[in-house]
Known about the structure:
mainly alpha; two-stranded antiparallel sheet; 16 helices
Amino acid sequence: xxxxxxxxxxxxxxxxxxxxxxxxxxxxxxxxxxxxxxxxxxxxxxxxxxxxxxxxxxxxxxxxxxxxxxxxxxxxxxxxxxxxxxxxxxxxxxxxxxxxxxxxxxxxxxxxxxxxxxxxxxxxxxxxxxxxxxxxxxxxxxxxxxxxxxxxxxxxxxxxxxxxxxxxxxxxxxxxxxxxxxxxxxxxxxxxxxxxxxxxxxxxxxxxxxxxxxxxxxxxxxxxxxxxxxxxxxxxxxxxxxxxxxxxxxxxxxxxxxxxxxxxxxxxxxxxxxxxxxxxxxxxxxxxxxxxxxxxxxxxxxxxxxxxxxxxxxxxxxxxxxxxxxxxxxxxxxxxxxxxxxxxxxxxxxxxxxxxxxxxxxxxxxxxxxxxxxxxxxxxxxxxxxxxxxxxxxxxxxxxxxxxxxxxxxxxxx
Length: 414
């Protein structure tokens, strides 16, 4: 099914209802998310009829998702003035509800093709749940808040920020964190593939999940990946490990430059959990260890947004998904060749190819395999791949992970 852009001539309640109907028709929208979409659409519709809201039922798609009107809607919703039934204490808002509203507004923006005019506020910090131990909770809040507000953060701090945010979102254990590679990141950096190996379980009982990443994790990964790239300048060969060392060290009498997983004599092996001792000097072990201990074992106070994924891709299903990627990519490439950038048809094609790419990644299809298909379909440069949903910083990491990475570069080098 190809996602559609709603009729942009609609206004107010009609526009929101059409956008909600479009979003809930997408095959990857879960029943719980569909209920949230209808709830937010209904709330915003009531906000347009509220005397304190600057817009009314005649609001256009260019107006509805701009900063001022959205802020007023959120304020009205936060204080309980848009409820159908009166709450016991309307003044008490929920941080989780605010986050859901912003996530759903982002989906409605996509359904309306309004990315160019939308101006949504950043998502709030994840809401606090049942408390974990005092020290890890305080450490998490202090470290992430401080690092997120530091534009001139050091490489060590940026890695600490990215690692802490990812652990907070996923509840990943230390071993799983050490095993993360660039292949585990979705093309949009919106999800992370996590292999769960709970303590006491056998290897055969391990399972894989795709876990949604927060805005903080995505932003911190965008800052960390370029720093990681710089650390790999002295590392020969390929490197797929997501978390690499910041300093040179020694292992079995051999010098190991920065950019390798600690305790790895070469670029191939992944980070050994025991090797995290070598990184204690920059504080990463303390943060990761505390968070993994607090969240990774029993995950109190943390409920990651996750969906099940296969441990290994099914060859037949992967082939069908790649055919879908190829078809959607060719449609987008043709529209771009025709000069249709920014048109409704081109926006619709972008959504379709992004969904196809995400589905193939979720099945376990390697990044380089997908990029080969996209290049053959006509999406060969970074701008075209960004239109198809690929984050430029991840593309650079893929290039480095595989020597060249994108087929267009490999071809140019011959």
